[in-house]
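Table S2 (text version). Query chain:
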Amino acid sequence: MSGGCGDGGGGGGGSGKYLSILDAFSAVHQRVSLIGVVLEYSIPKHSKGTDYFCSVRMVDESHYSRGLSVQFFARSVELLPRIEACGDIIVLFDVEMKVHSKEIYALFNKKFSSFALYEGKYVSSFKPYQVSSKFRLKELDTRLVADIRKWLDVFQLDTVSRQSVHLRGIKVGECADLVCKIIHVYEVTKDERLLFVWDGTDAPLLPIQTERGNDEESPVLLQLEAAPLPRDILCTFPTVGTILRVRVDQGNWSLSPSSCTGRWVIFINLTFQVRAGLWCGVCKPFTKIRFVPNEDHLVLKLQRDYEDRVSSRFDRMPFTSFPWPSPITETEGRDVPFVTLLDIITYSEVTAKFKCVARVVEAFPMKAEDFRSPSGTYRLRLTLEDPTARIHAYVYSEDGETFFEGYPSIDEMRRKRNKLLGIEIIEEDEDGGPSSTSSRVPPMVQFCIKSYYVDKSNVWASRRYRIFGTRLIC
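Corresponding structure-token output:
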């Protein structure tokens, strides 16, 4: 493709002559027609008025480092460009070149501007997949589209910031760019959405904040959403790697499950916080969301790393447990491969047996003297956590006898409890519990888990988990 301009027919009121992006920077306050490649594009959001807004950054051979920002306004989301992937080709007629805060950009005026979208270098069709209402598909010079596709064969489309982070490297309170895949959109309220995003890596372990007197009255949450997601939705999730919840104000963004689910995106300036002991992403007013093509080099690497990980016998273990989990537990079946907690939740059969690596974030009851009933039967519930999920797992009867290696004294059970919960130094109150607020990091240990049901008429809804074949040997 030439770095200058080309001729072509089409809609709008201009001459139909295309300018290169470099030449367009010298045409401020003029109407121009452009053709280029989509480098990045934003999710539609409400403007300050009644319109919807999105931005597109386009490049061509004359200006491929940063490109040109094009701002679109329309009465509805459907009238905005619905770009399928970065690397697609956009044709613009009669857009206005503007300048704001010393930055030059193009403005799509809904009164007279028009656009057309073509697939990028992987196709040979010259039929646009979307055109605006004022675009006249007549004698557009398809040679220019073909030339851009040839240029794309040698141009490395780099849409991801080198400063982007992986979930495995996030920090509390940090504001950073994150490349991830949206796997589900959950409606919290009419004006709030919860995005479930994933990149195949494990987020860092968080210290557990506990305060004696609240453990039993306010149990830890299993998830940030008000109720567990339906099983059919959970079964579509990848079962290895952290799934981060990201809160989005729907008043600012126009997010529909059909347009976002399954798409790779980059969050620009996403803030990472902790809520209820779980990682959470928060979109601030300055946060931006851009779609990322499946062919992006970082996306391809993340997917390869995930495929390598799920095919390995041991890589389903949390990264934080490498090179091996804490030795304070022993389990049956040394040759049984490990699974994640989400593997267990989404398993195709109601009753099954598993081996996993997880940590105990809560014990209920907390007092060691309450671990057994008056008749001496073990009865306690442990809340297990790994990077993929949290579950309640019960220690009951003879499985408790195995777990605690018989019937040790109350003091000995307290010591075992403290090891399991990651309480290194503890002051006991008169009830046998921590007397003040403390921060702890429970160790990652091995468990054998079996699933069962308590209601034959509704086996899935009554499914439970129980620890078996596991000894706490500390």
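Notes on Table S2: The chain is about 15% helix and 35% strand. The first strand starts at residue 6 and ends at 7.
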